[in-house]
Amino acid sequence: MQESPKYWKGIEELENSPEFAKNAFSEFADFLPVSEKNSSTDATVSPRRDFLKLMGFSLAAATLASCEAPIHKAIPYLNKPEEVDPGIANFYASTYFNGSDYNSVLVKTREGRPIKLEGNPESPITRGGLSARAQASVLSLYDSARLQHFAIKGQQADKDRVDQEIRSKLAATRGKIAIVSPTIISPSTKRAIAEFASRYPTTEHVMYDAQSQSALIQANGGVLPSFDFSKANVIVSLGADFLGTWISPVEHAHQYITNRKVSSDKKTMSRHFQFETNLSLTGSNADVRVPLKPSEMGQATLALYNEVVGGGAASTYNNAQLKKAAAELKANRGRSLVVAGSNDLAIQTLVAAINQSLGNVGAAIDTANPSMVRQGDDARMLRLVNEMNAGSVGAVIFYHANPVYDHPLAAKVKSGIAKVPLSISLNDRLDETGTLCYYAAPDHHYLESWNDYEPKRGSLSLAQPTISPLFATRQAQDSLLTWADNPQSYYNFLRANWRSILGGNFQQGWDKAVHDGVASGTLMPASAAPSAAAIDATQAISSISRAPKGSGIEFSLYEKVGIGNGFEANNPWLQELPDPISKATWGNYVSVPRDMAVTNEWEQGDVVKLTANGISIELPVLIQPGQAKGTVGVAVGYGRELAGKVGSKVGANAYPLATVRDNSLQYGGTVTLEKTGAKSPIAQTQTHHTVMDRKPVVQEATLADYIKNPKEVTEYDKIATPDGLEKPNKVSLWQDYEYKNHHWGMVIDLNSCIGCGSCVIGCQVENNIAVVGKQEVINRREMHWLRIDRYYSSDTTKEDFAEKGKLDTYAAMEDPSENPSVIFEPMLCQHCNHAPCETVCPVLATTHSSEGLNQMTYNRCVGTRYCANNCPYKVRRFNWFSYYTNEKFEAVNGHMFTDLGRMVLNPDVTVRARGVMEKCSFCVQRIQLAKLEAKKERRRPVDGEVVTACAQSCPTQAIIFGDLRDPNSRVSQVTRREDGERGFHVLDAINVQPNITYLTKIRNVEPSKKLTV
């Protein structure tokens, strides 16, 4: 065939000079000063005509660039690994545990690189659920801030030299050798530490937790009980955020929601009472929530003890809801549960006594098979800090521990390290603690490592490497064995430790355990006795009675669902994950009640100075409905100094505000607040707080009403027609689509959604969604395809029109209640059958598929944004910039800028360019894969084979996805069952006919309680 002739617009195109190529691939042209008249004497100012010439050149350059893809050399496998097929994903069972958050996971790899985590359904603990932090942890594997080599005094050093010097100095060490770590739930790691201690007999292993549960362990005989919320008809939580950050939230969320799901076949729900200071994720899901000060928590616990057990000293706390909670607890003996989040030994001792009296131990509380995910001992850590400063510690090894940042006595830890002759960091980066250590032997990432875990006695899980080490690091356990002169690799050491439980054909049992990721049995040695003695109920009552009354403004420290204790602070996905309650991103703040803000004339974003215990930090004010009067809340996990490019200098470090009392850490106290006069805007993804009594947006009802008549708990819009009132979908100018093969749809149960945000991160990871940073969030340009709208209840309704007038009523509706009820509503593209976006796109970039999907054709989109303007749900996202090439976003979206970071991208999903609209696709790549696999086997896809990333992530199974054309699919069955009862479409009256059905939220509250969001 004759070659087509080539044409050029100029010499520049013909020669394709480097300057031309540079301009062709630049997102923005260099700044060119332009003068309307060529009268300027400034040689740098160009006449308008030259500007137009430049524009012509730029357009030609862009045209040529769009026709030629950059050349990448492809190197084929000479000897292809048997398990790797290009374009085919492999899954490996593993485990995520960062010292506080446990998840059994399946690691999705493509061409040998991990790109996504899914929950492991085989796990009896997490049951296929996944936390937001676990979802995002795959990105930390490719974090360039990780220490990539061994180091001496921060400078790169040869590994053999480091090993030789450490062995020599350990052998000559006089005094204690301390290994400091957060909670370790790996039996083999503990055995490796014991092996190290046998070589160096003065070794002591000290565990501490940044958010300590030392008092809970101490009050229960040295073990952390396993709690099963599915076995409780009545739950009373005294400040425990068990759905968000307390102990094992993924496990607890699955248990909790078991008794919260309702249907026409199951019209019972558990009753949940929450007493707390800050409005937490758990408190927002409670049926009854009572705000109280931290100083009142002890008296509230004593009051509950008196009501349930009796015999205690008189309590100064008097609350009607607490008495109702006590009455319901007594009516449900053996089927109830009381938990407390406080680290006060007296409070935890009384709570243990209450549960014992109710017969909950052995039912909802299991002490025979305790949880292992919190083992920190406050007293032991405090003693070590004093010993370091006294000079009696000869060597200290920090293993994933950063006490210079996250311990209240950070200053003493820092001075103590300087007095220890030998200091070693096994942390993955030169963090606040690691940079003070003489030696650094960085650990592998957990996705590069072999390890085992026992989160609960009798339940084991394994981790296996899913990628070869990216850097010149070494697994920490191998380092300990090497320094102990044990030539065995940790992999062989691990296998040897498992022989005692696998027995029989060991290799067969080992292969099954590695494949499944979980196993039964126990390898964990007996728990060490707490260093501080327990107390009885009488002593606890005396301690609470003697406690001074609160005075002034009190503060309460808490963890956020995303950032947690700060370990993952350098993860941009977590930094941009909106807090479930405040919807704030990129930093912490001081949450204050509205009356305090009004009294002090504070506005949101005003910076105040908090001073407690002689420590001061400055943070902006956020007005938070539900915050207990006379209190403020501050999140820990921020204010890192050496986290990395993303996490350093974000927010302020609140850990120093915590105090030490009676050899335990306390996360509250008295604080003074002073307005600084500065302003710091808070990047929130949602600033409207109520839906102003608009039932078509979100709906809720009481359990009593649901039991009475399920068909009257949901309000449905009707349209007036000549034939009378009709459903909106009966009146249409559209020619309806006919789905002959598949019709994909989704059901979202508002009763099951707790607002944790795992689905948001799952969607972001799966679909290569860009991070935009704080300023762009403030500009309302966040890119999340899925958001979780949070709505507060209001004390004003449309019933007040007659008394207050419409304008005043509507204005008042915007203000949340002082102690509001909260409802969460995941919002994503509704894939409407009458999609308003499709009718306004001038280039058919958004179209309707034959299977009910609202499709986006990226290379056809010209960025008019008509579709976004016409979308009633506001779920479309516009790429204002090229987030993967514009250097403005390199600090926050850096993983898209480097070859290392781009390894996390999903090759099945296009990275969108500047000027393109994007939105939820119902994970069409997963749909196509399942259809292809079914086609190869000459069958239709089976229900459950296609699961969207959001549905797969959800620990409460609030999202169901499937084929509405399949009458046996779950989504089809639930849609039919709930039609006319709890099922509704958001904004049904506009007749866009979404393919997502929501289920009305049911609250187990008193029938007389008014529900208004």
Characterise this structure.
With about 1000 residues, this protein is of the alpha/beta class. Helices cover about 25% and strands about 20% of the residues. The protein contains 31 helices and 45 strands. Strands 7-6-18-17-16-8-9 form a seven-stranded mixed β-sheet, with helices on both faces. It has a six-stranded mixed β-barrel with strand order 22-27-24-26-25-30. β25 (about 605-610) and β26 form a beta hairpin. α2 crosses α3 (about 50-65), α6 packs parallel to α16 (about 475-485) and α12 crosses α19. The protein is globular, with a radius of gyration of 30 Å. Mean pLDDT is about 90; it is low at about 30-45 and about 50-75.
Quick recap of the structure?
The chain has 1013 residues and is an alpha/beta fold. The chain has 31 helices and 45 strands.
Give the secondary structure arrangement, pairings included.
Elements: H1 11-15, H2 18-25, E1 34-35, E2 46-47, H3 48-67, E3 89-97, E4 102-110, E5 113-119, H4 132-141, E6 151-152, E7 155-156, H5 159-171, E8 176-181, H6 187-199, E9 203-207, H7 214-219, E10 224-227, E11 234-238, H8 249-258, E12 271-276, H9 281-284, E13 288-291, H10 297-308, H11 320-331, E14 336-340, H12 345-358, E15 365-371, H13 378-390, E16 393-398, H14 403-406, H15 410-419, E17 422-425, E18 439-440, E19 451-456, E20 459-463, H16 476-483, H17 490-502, H18 506-516, E21 518-520, H19 537-546, E22 553-558, H20 572-575, E23 584-585, E24 590-592, H21 594-600, E25 606-612, E26 615-623, E27 631-635, E28 659-661, E29 664-666, E30 668-679, E31 683-684, E32 700-702, H22 703-708, E33 719-721, E34 724-726, E35 744-749, H23 758-766, H24 774-778, E36 787-792, H25 801-804, H26 806-813, E37 822-827, H27 836-840, E38 846-848, E39 854-856, H28 866-870, E40 877-878, E41 917-918, H29 924-936, H30 949-953, E42 959-963, H31 970-978, E43 983-984, E44 996-999, E45 1001-1003
Helix pairs in contact: 2-3, 4-23, 6-16, 6-17, 10-11, 10-12, 12-19, 13-15
